[in-house]
Amino acid sequence: MRLQKLTKYIFIVLMALIFNGCIVGDAVALPFRVTGAVLEVITPDPIGSSVSGVGEAIDTAIPF
Question: What pTM was estimated for this model as a whole?
Fold first, then answer.
């Protein structure tokens, strides 16, 4: 009974991720966003913001 419930829950989560459609762009942009956030702490804001902007541009450019 518990295994069926867990399997159903995992299936629903996977379907939500598959039909979300933006998982590839988010996955590719994530390192740039994290690096930009770290650089904003260490360096002046324009440098970190520009790196984070690259991540946003990647996420926008990749349509799937």
Answer: 0.53
**Is 55 among the domain residues?**
yes
Q: Is residue 45 part of a domain?
A: yes
What total of structural domains would you count in the chain?
A: 1
Give the domain range for residue 42.
22-64
Tens of pLDDT, residues 5-41: 888 888 887 777 666 666 777 777 778 888 888 888 8
The one-character DSSP state at 62 is -
* Burial (0-12, 13-18, 19+ Cβ within 10 Å), 13: exposed
At 20, list the tokens.
């979300």
Is 58 contained in some domain?
yes
Question: What spatial distance separates the first Cα and last Cα of the chain, rounded to whole Å?
Answer: 36
